[in-house]
Amino acid sequence: AQTVTQSQPEMSVQEAETVTLSCTYDTSESDYYLFWYKQPPSRQMILVIRQEAYKQQNATENRFSVNFQKAAKSFSLKISDSQLGDAAMYFCAYRGSNYQLIWGAGTKLIIKP
Amino acid sequence: NAGVMQNPRHLVRRRGQEARLRCSPMKGHSHVYWYRQLPEEGLKFMVYLQKENIIDESGMPKERFSAEFPKEGPSILRIQQVVRGDSAAYFCASSPSGLPLNSPLHFGNGTRLTVT
Fold first, then answer.
1. How many CB pairs under 8 A join A and B?
2. Per residue in A63-72, pLDDT tens?
């Protein structure tokens, strides 16, 4: 069975600085997708970025980028120029041949002004 | 272009009562997924439905829980005889198709169920 692990329950960063959230996963599949979702206090689950496992190039969305290491089964999220609005819970999720999303436990990101 | 709509946003039930959670998918979406989020945890898959069909309910507790997605109207997650352990946030997501894998899931804002 696939698992997703987020080892950092909480991270804090100074506004305008860069922070990296870690995520590792375990799977025997070769074709899958990885996602980072953001959950602000409003509770809405917002897709931040996604990565196809067959693509070697790391996905980028404005200030958000990933470091995808397929062999190491690692999928970290880098947030550059952190803003107060980035404060939220961040979840890493995996989707393989089974359409179900497998979620990590989340990392709470605190932005210090 | 309305997103996934869930209601109610908050629901309080006494032990033994029934809870009904509603989810209207995005326009044009025919696939609905229900997830449960316990405090301090990520989401856990419960059930996957298409219109009038349950595709996968492997994440649903065998008793007291049921889900439907009728031809007309929203998807309903029903919990009978609620217990305190049912207290959680319940999220609905929809997609235009169940596959391929990169088909994005659009989530609603969730319903927070509190059982007293």
1. 59
2. 999 999 999 9
Give the chain A residue whose CA is nearest to the CA of B107. Answer: A45
Give A-chain residues touching B41 at CB under 8 angstroms.
105-106
- The Cα of A56 is separated from the nearest Cα of chain B by a number of Å equal to 16
- What gap in Å lies between CA B60 and CA A105, rounded to an integer? 20
Query: Does B98 sit within 8 Å of A43, measured CB to CB?
Result: no
Render each residue's pLDDT in chain B as its tens digit; 116 residues: 568 999 999 999 999 999 999 999 998 888 999 999 998 788 999 999 999 999 999 999 999 999 999 999 999 999 999 999 999 999 999 988 755 666 668 899 999 999 99
* 8 Å CB contact of A97 and B35: no
Question: What is the C-alpha to C-alpha distance for residues A68 and A19, in angstroms, rounded to an integer?
Answer: 16
Q: From A51, which residue of chain B is nearest by alpha-carbon distance?
A: B102
**What are the φ/ψ torsions at residue B106 (nearest 5 degrees)?**
-110, 125
Place of tokens 């870690």: A22
Q: How far apart are CA B6 and CA B24, in angstroms?
A: 6
Q: How far is A107 from chain B (nearest CA, A)?
A: 10
Rounded CA-CA distance A86/A64 in Å is 10
**Cα dihedral: B82, A88, A93, A70 (round 10):** -160
